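re: ur question from earlier - yeah i can do the single chain one, its not a big deal. heres the input i used so u can compare w yours
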Amino acid sequence: MSARVVTEPRMLIGGQWSAAASGEVFETIDPSTGSLLARVPRADEKDVDRAVAAAVAAAPAWGRMDARARGRLLLEVAHRMREKSERLATLDALDAGIPLRVARADVGRGIERLEYFAELAQEVKGETYPTARGSFIYTLRQPYGVVAVVNPFNHPVMFALSKPAAPLAAGNTVVVKPPEQAPLSTVEMAEIFAEVLPPGVFNVVTGLGPSTGAALVRHPAVRKISFTGSVRTGQAILAATAANVVPAVLELGGKNANIVFPDADLERAVQGAVGGMSLGVCGQSCQSGTRLFLHRQIHDEFVQRLVARLNEVRVGVALDESTEMGPMISARQLETVLSYVEDGRRAGARLLAGGSALEDVPLQGGFFIRPTVFDGVDMSMRIAREEIFGPILSILVWDDRDDMIKAVNSLEYGLTASVWSQNVEAHEIVREIEAGYVYINQHGGSALGVPFGGWKQSGMGVEHSRDELLDYTRIKTVDARVP
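and the output i got, formated as tokens:
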């Protein structure tokens, strides 16, 4: 695909394509080459006002529409997205550096989640309550109105499809802000939403987080927020929305534990540890299993197998069909990750693999790094405590079960964890881990229809399930006196 076909993207506001009112733009870069892909409208508060006003105007009719009718329209969006899936995947490969085969899977997952909520739309219903007061009491579930959706760069098109799905199915209108690092696939798929849905139901504003994103989340007409990103930004959103008392669904950071017991199937656990590094997005995932707790009895053999597998990972440009791991999203993120490598070395951790930028990729100028593993890590080190958002794995050796659990739970993160064991005791260990989604003998992903969400500072609210759909409705109680 030539980048020339996406050099003039526009925002979708009230069913119309628009540049920023100021005429200002920002650049989006191909992280595989460092070359310019497009200049994108840089929305300011006036543009955000227009988008929210369009969503407000469309909200009453969309909210009153029969749930089956809403569901059918969303299913039609999903159908047309499937027809355009290869183009969307290619855009994410170009704009986000996601290997093409990973990007194709992302498109598929996003469409499946959209279809799931479209088919679930009729589950928005209230309850009746028995009473001895001579009243008939029932509840209604009604949409909030306008929902702001602020997405991250690691899975742009998947989140652009899945994050608005529950709000739309529940009868809300949305304003989506795509990631400034990779906005192109969201703008592209907005064409289909514009073709199928009434004007103003689905809107897209492009811009930077501190300006466009901040203006959106603090807008007084926005009644709920969906955000995926860092803990720091999530905290800032909560602070900014306090004045309006606006609720939020937050999926934030993770420093997830992969715990391997002596009785584990070693080959399966090694593959799980590699998969848990989220190499398909160059480790830039809040679900990455970046803390590997290895029992001392199996440490040596496990590490030997792990390093051998990581040295086989094919790193390269995202459009290459054989690439397993593409580049970091930006030069800045690459610098951040490399700074953690140096910090780990200074702290005394042993570098077993990777740790340096690539110099042998087919195209120069991209933001590449090799999969990196540190051994001899302890919980006092920054590489064991902070979310790096890169392909760095820290190995921590354990002997005592209780001490290990204490170390696992010692951080303020609590998104996911994995337990590798063939013993039924694994189910007891799970109860002690402070995380919202825990795997046994596997790592990564989440089953559709099952609640997914973080504990502690890893987030609030759940997604991917009926609970998420209902969370985008408000309960109204009706207490009617019987004549």
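The chain has 16 helices and 20 strands. not sure if urs matches, ping me
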